[in-house]
Design a protein that fits this description.
88 residues, 12% helix
Length: 88
């Protein structure tokens, strides 16, 4: 799987299920990617990096609460205007 970043200067900052996010800390330039997911249990963030799995195992009933939790754990969190390419 490959994440293609298509960010522009004027980007919509509202969060929605299906959005791809990029997050990293100041002391490590490694950018990580995830996707906001939603199911009957609530909102979650699915890891799109080399070690797949959910970063936040708890489903949040409110999308804002999930985004606050992610923002508390990382120095930078950005919405990425991207589409996912899944290859065999």
């Amino acid at each position: 799987m490959k994440v293609i970043d298509k960010r522009t200067k004027n980007r919509d900052e509202q969060w929605h299920a299906g959005d791809v996010i990029c997050y990293w800390n100041n002391d490590d330039d490694t950018k990580l990617y995830g996707q906001i997911t939603h199911n009957t249990y609530g909102y979650n963030e699915a890891d799109l990096n080399d070690n797949p799995g959910n970063v936040y195992n708890t489903a949040f009933t409110n999308l804002d609460n999930l985004m606050k939790q992610i923002a508390n754990n990382w120095d930078h969190v950005e919405k990425v205007n991207a589409h996912l390419v899944v290859e065999d």
